[in-house]
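so im writing up the methods section and need the MoaD/ThiS family protein record in one place, dumping it here so i stop losing it
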Amino acid sequence: MAIRILFLGPLRDLAGCEEMTAAAPLDWAGLLKLVGQDVAEVLAGDRIHLACGGRVLANKTELSAQDGDEVALLPPVSGG
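--- predicted struct ---
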C-alpha cells in the first residue's frame, strides 16, 4: 500500500495533477521533494494546511504519513 497525496483547488493546477502516490513513510522534507519546486514553494507558505489521515495538522512540518494514509494539501478557502 502507498500514501495518497491529494492536490485541492489551485494546487491541482499548479501540480498538474489531482493526486499522486508516494512510498511510506513520508515526512515534510520528503513531501516537498516529491511535489516539485513550484508546489513546494507554495506549501512552505503559511496559508496552506495539510491533513493526514483525516486530521488537519497544527504544524505541517510534523507530517508523518504511513502506508494507507491520505495527505490532502489544503489551500485557503474563499467564499461569500
